[in-house]
Amino acid sequence: MKAILVSFLTALITLPALAARPVEGKFIAHEWGTFTSVQGADGVQLEWNSLVASDLPPFVYNLSRIPVNVRSNNLVFLLTKPNLRARQRMETPVIYLYSDRERTVDVVVDFPQGQITEWYPQLHADSFKTPGRVHQMKWNDVTLLPRATHAELEAKLPTHPNPSHYFPAREANADFLRRTPAPGEKPEIESLLFYRGVGQFPAPLTVTMRESSRALRLGNSGKEPLGNLFVLEVKRDGGAAFSFIDRIEPGATRDVSLPCSRSVQPTSDVAKHLGTSMRAALVREGLFEAEAAAMVKTWRDSWFAEPGVRVLYTLPREWTDRTLPLRLDPKPMEIVRVMVGRAEVITSAMESAVLAQFKRFIGSPADGRAAIARETRDMGLGRFLEPTVLRLKGRVPDQQFNTLGFTFLAMTANAR
């Protein structure tokens, strides 16, 4: 009798987990996104402030725009957002949903090792129940509206006149979705679920470079193979070149030389060729053609045009599922998740060039520092200048660094 009672109680406990809504007809989910790390030539993955400037339209929610009814428990968001320094920037994951009929879906994304920083549409209030942190996103009662029968909703998507990395993602032409943030509020219409975040965990790819060498060593510290590795150098004075490695097994390393001057081609030509190659790789990983094209278009200015040395590669699906668990109810008949890792390499030559500028800055009178800041800005390091400068601590006297290091960064960021 006791055994029967235990079995009965167990069934009652597990029943809700088995009660997911059955899926009928066609329903699939596809997702892509980017994880960016900044690495020194010694392979150390650096902390950096990836939120120094926003490239998103103002309707996107962020840590300063959480629901009023939960804000009192999350004041720390308002105080810390500009200073979220982390080793990983999770950039623009988007989830596309396709359905042959109108249906209601619940979507949950966990980010246990990180913090969500931006999202759209608005999340359910349960997403903010942990004070000071958003590490789980819940979009409850999302209504899917097939594009074939709701073409008029295209005109109702939120927009903004300024350029943004947000809008090209819509060109995948997924079905529309509608979510009402709270009772009595206006429904929000989109064709994707959007989010971003930061995390302190290391990327599975480690890149090292000897000071006197033009060769990179790529090491896979993860549990699964890494694939579709594109090693790209975009030169400050124009021109670019890239190499391709198909696969690196767990625990293995591969050496690749940066291209010699004879291999450098116009940056626009390399971007076109590399864009075609990356779209093909993303399709091989499971994305639709339009989705792969939307992803490449979203990030082509950052991936292919910013001066520097970087490695782009596809992350294993198992890594994504561990790092960013995704649940949908009802469960789609197909779920595809394709994440691209980006390792931005701060080479020894870059560090030396920035160090020389910083020493000039320290030794110059106050009225001469603006010109040095402009020259440093024109080096093209952009948001990766800060981690490069912070790496210089110890290579100049502490007092000078503590006094002028952040002045140097601020003047460079605001140089005209």
Q: Quick recap of the structure?
A:
With 416 residues, the chain is an alpha+beta fold. Helix content is 28%, strand content 31%.
Beta-strand content: 25-35%
The structural class is alpha+beta
As a percent range, the share of helical residues equals 25-40%
Query: First CA to last CA: what distance?
Result: 81 Å
Describe this structure in words.
The chain has helices spanning 2-18, 68-71, 75-80, 267-284, 289-304, 317-323, 348-363, 369-377, 385-390, 398-413; strands spanning 27-40, 45-46, 48-49, 61-62, 85-86, 88-99, 103-110, 114-120, 136-145, 176-179, 188-190, 193-199, 205-209, 215-220, 226-234, 240-248, 253-257, 308-314, 326-329, 334-346. It has 416 residues and is an alpha+beta fold. Among the domains are: 50-199, no CATH class; 349-413. The strands form four sheets. Strands 1, 2, 4, 6, 8, 12, 15, 16, 18 and 20 form a ten-stranded mixed beta sheet that branches. Strands 11-10-9-7-19 form a five-stranded antiparallel beta sheet, with no helix packed on it. A three-stranded antiparallel beta sheet has the order 13-14-17, with no helix packed on it. A hairpin with a 5-residue loop joins strand 15 (226-234) and strand 16 (240-248). The longest helix has 18 residues, at 267-284.
